[in-house]
Amino acid sequence: MSLVELHAIHKSFGELEVLKGIDLKIEEGQVIALIGKSGSGKSTLLRTINGLETINDGTIMVAGKKVGDRDTDVLTLRLNVGMVFQQFNLFPHYTALENVMLSPQVVKKQSKAEAKDVAEEMLAKVGLADKMMHYPDQLSGGQQQRVAIARALAMKPRVLLCDEVTSALDPELVNEVLAVVRQLAEEGMTLVMVTHEMRFAREVCDKLVFMHQGRIHESGAPEDVFANPKTPELASFVGGLA
Amino acid sequence: MAYEFDFGAIVPHWQLLLDGVVLTTELTVIGAVVGVSLGTLAAWARASRAPVISQIVGIYVELIRNTPFLVQLFFIFFGLPALGVKLSEFQAAVLAMIVNLGAYSTEIIRAGILAIPKGQIEAAQSLAMNRVQIFRYVIIRPALKKIWPALSSQIVIVMLGSSVCSQIAAEELTFAANYIQAVNFRAFEVYFVATALYLVMSVLLRWGLKIFGNFLFERRSHV
Lengths: 242, 223
Known about the structure:
The structure holds two protein chains of two kinds. By secondary structure, chain A is an alpha/beta fold. Chain A has one domain (4-241): Rossmann fold (3-Layer(aba) Sandwich), CATH 3.40.50. Chain A is built from nine helices and ten strands. In chain A, the strands form two sheets. Chain A has a six-stranded mixed beta sheet with strand order 6-7-8-3-9-10, sandwiched between helices. Chain A has a four-stranded antiparallel beta sheet with strand order 2-1-4-5, covered by helices on one side. In chain A, strand 7, helix 6 (171-186) and strand 8 (190-194) form a beta-alpha-beta unit. In chain A, helix 3 crosses helix 4 (112-125). The longest helix of chain A has 16 residues, at 171-186. Chain A is globular. Chain B has helices at residues 14-47, 51-65, 69-79, 89-114, 118-126, 131-161, 173-184, 187-217. Chain B is mostly helical. Chain B has a single domain (12-217), classed as MetI-like (MetI-like fold). In chain B, helix 1 (14-47) packs antiparallel against helix 2 (51-65), helix 1 (14-47) runs antiparallel to helix 7 and helix 7 (173-184) runs antiparallel to helix 8 (187-217). Chain A binds chain B through residues 50-52, 71, 75, 78-79, 81-83, 85, 87, 89-93, 95, 97-98, 101-103, 106-107, 112, 116, 133, 135, 148, 151-152, 155, and chain B through 117, 119-120, 122-130, 133, 137-138, 141-142, 145, 217, 219, 221-223.
């Protein structure tokens, strides 16, 4: 049984159909990168996995259970599926520590002491033990993104979705965030990321999924995908990057 | 014949003025606390995607913002008894102020809510927080912070507008002033003093709201 199973996912924004029947299985411990041109539907696909986008048709199963459209179903889904965004989206009125502690306290009803222990552990893990009392606007982009990763991890999700987590960063800050993601991958965290960092994807991922015009056009192990693209679209996408 | 100013003529009535100031303050405090709370809930409802509630709130807001406060007050005090709702002068005045400030603050607070970046709400959703938790922990404090100056001004406006409540004989400051000048015919002196008192109260209220805002939005760790 896969951890997450998407079956025949369709999604339209008004007249525009952005996902035209997606089937995707995510196994426990797998690291998957969604690649493709902008507008190919990769971010939308990622956002359907934790219910930020509703789907028009198809089914999502998480840990063997079908996700319905009731609010409680979506909340249960999100307990299993964490997400990190391009724009960090830290809560500006809380310190780094409070950002990480908030949801375990209010959603999981952890005690303050318990939440603090977990938060400190997670912030140390992303290398920010010395920035816990800083507010988001006192942190660099790379630091903010690492807080956002710690915040998602504090909920102990089974899958972490990463939506272009380095795209809003200055080039010199990209590596500190990628290092954290790489470390998570090595620890066996299940990861699904939309990324433009092709070298990173190639090194870290088990599987690349190439999206084109709302469909999964081609997928496979990174070496195969890069070395032997089977379709002209992927060949041109990969070629364009070289 | 030159007018001889006699501010001393007010002195025997100081207790009435003081009572007026106290009542104006009471009206303002209750009206502000309940009115802003009402406005907060209404703004949340209006910013949410529940179409029916959002429309009901919309009608309330437009109804209040497009009619005079005096007429709203008369409706509550003179009109509602026809439906069996009899309110004292004070109750009617407080209710009118709550309803009025509620409508204006709805729009002000809604602007603050809409100014919260969508990504922060999505982040909170991704952390499995429900609507109520998101509003309480993620939205409301930054939203109020953004619009606090505008909201403070509106509260001051409502405090000054409470003078209209003298028209239903709620014994606030303007009522007291009217009464005193009817007794001693010292209109200039009485209204001069009443004006000064309103001025002082406004300045104090603004100052108090600023201090309260600083306290509310101050960066202090809760850990």
